[in-house]
Amino acid sequence: DTGVSQNPRHKITKRGQNVTFRCDPISEHNRLYWYRQTLGQGPEFLTYFQNEAQLEKSRLLSDRFSAERPKGSFSTLEIQRTEQGDSAMYLCASIRGQGSYEQYFGPGTRLTVT
Amino acid sequence: TQLLEQSPQFLSIQEGENLTVYCNSSSVFSSLQWYRQEPGEGPVLLVTVVTGGEVKKLKRLTFQFGDARKDSSLHITAAQPGDTGLYLCAGARGSNYQLIWGAGTKLIIKP
Fold first, then answer.
1. Residues 6 or more apart from A98 whose CB is under 8 A from it?
2. B63 contacts: CB under 8 Å, gap ≥ 6
3. Fewer CB atoms inside 10 A, N or C side of chain B?
4. CB-based burial, B52-63: b 16+ in 10 Å, e otherwise
5. Which residues of B touch A108 (CB under 8 A)?
6. Does A2 have pLDDT greater than 80?
7. Could you tell me if B103 lies within 8 Å of chain A, comparing CB atoms?
8. Contact assignment for A107 to B41 by CB distance below 8 Å
9. pLDDT band for position B35 (50/70/90)?
10. Which residues in chain B have Cβ-Cβ distances shorter than 8 Å to A101?
11. CA-based diameter of chain A, in Å?
């Protein structure tokens, strides 16, 4: 069990640029979640996958955000035309499912939009 | 509307003191989890409580799930600087494996 990994750990980009983040979940976990978190707040749900299927996307999520999980393994989160308000920590979590709700988080990607 | 209310939002105390943080809701949860998060890192699961009235202990940390499964508390005895962090509670409802998150309690333990 190598844990959930995320890359990059930090990303600084200029407003208007596109960015892509990667998450590698724990290998036997079939559910994968993306969250956004601002300083001192709890995680805000963005979207989640069961295997390769994207089952739910937050209604608050702009169309500039898109996520994929090809082959049900790693996942990517892309933000197009970034805005300063997108600056946050982006967290990925995975769970085994099958009755377990316990989420295992990666270290996150800190995005700064200048 | 925050479905899970955590209190206090911020707590700063001296090493050696005891403290309790709360996680309250008007909704019933099938289980509730507590996580601790350090700056620049992802949350780390501390415990899951499932049964109403359940008490779980993790060294100096005691977690309790309310009888009605609507609320929970975390009590820390003899707090240490290493306990510093953001404590998050998250409740499970339904079968979609989504969690409802509280906004967290930021805890600072001063040496």
1. none
2. B34, B46, B47, B49, B55, B56, B57, B72, B73, B74, B75
3. N
4. eebeeeeeebbb
5. 40-42
6. no
7. yes
8. yes
9. very high
10. 30-31, 33, 48, 92, 97, 99
11. 42
DSSP for chain A reads ----EEE-SEEEE-TT--EEEEEE--TT--EEEEEEE-TTS--EEEEEEETTEEEEE-TT--TTEEEE-GGGS-EEEEE-S--GGG-EEEEEEEE-BTTB---EE---EEEEE-
Contact A31 B102 (CB under 8 A): no
Whole-angstrom distance, CA of residue B63 vs CA of residue B47: 8
- B102 contacts on A by Cβ (under 8 Å): 42
| Other CB atoms within 10 Å distance of the CB of residue A18 | 11
Query: pLDDT, tens digit, for every residue of B48-106?
Result: 999 999 999 999 999 999 999 999 999 999 999 999 999 999 998 766 677 889 999 99
Token pair for residue A51? 């295997």
- In this structure, what token pair is assigned to residue B67? 């009888």
